[in-house]
Amino acid sequence: MGGRRALKGGAPRLLGRQDGLEGRVYRRAYDALEAEYGPFSALARLEAGRVALLWVQLQAASHALMQAQRARRTGKGRRPSVQQVERFARRQGLADGSYAQGLAKLRELVARNSHHPPGSPEAMLQALTKGAAR
């Protein structure tokens, strides 16, 4: 996306436009991932962006499923068929599985790359905990 400024915190630009509901959900998800697993390397930043996008898709699929179920149960006039509700449920389940897999990959990547420079407080703490575990 040439010509557009970088997003706050180095988050990758994976949505066409970052404004609107999807952009806010993406930003909240990315910030939560960075708070939990950051700071990120360049590769981990891309992977965290992918996981945040999967969260956006999961939230949209869950919302669509809930609306279809509610319309089927209490709606008047034209309501979604049972097959349509099942399709929404399948889509939500796939989105949930994709998010869980993406999050597991991010955790693995961050754990593998969680080396700290020698002499840093994190490295000393890591060495102490490894020594205590033996």
Task: List the main descriptive attributes of the protein structure presented here.
71% helix; 134 residues; mainly alpha; single chain
Shape by Cα distribution: elongated
Calculate Rg over CA atoms: 20 Å
Helix content: over 70%
State the low-pLDDT regions, or none: none
Count of individual helical segments = 4
**SSE order in H/E notation?**
HHHH
Tell me the distance between the termini. Answer: 50 Å
Instruction: Give the strand tally.
Output: 0
Average predicted confidence as pLDDT: 86
Largest sheet geometry: none
Q: Which structural class matches the secondary elements?
A: mainly alpha
Number of domains: 1
What can you see in these coordinates?
This protein has 134 residues and is mainly alpha-helical. It has one domain (17-112). The longest helix is centred in the middle third of the chain and has 33 residues, at 42-74. The chain has helices spanning 20-37, 42-74, 82-112, 121-133. Helix content is 71%, strand content 0%. Helix 1 packs across helix 2 and helix 2 (42-74) runs antiparallel to helix 3 (82-112).
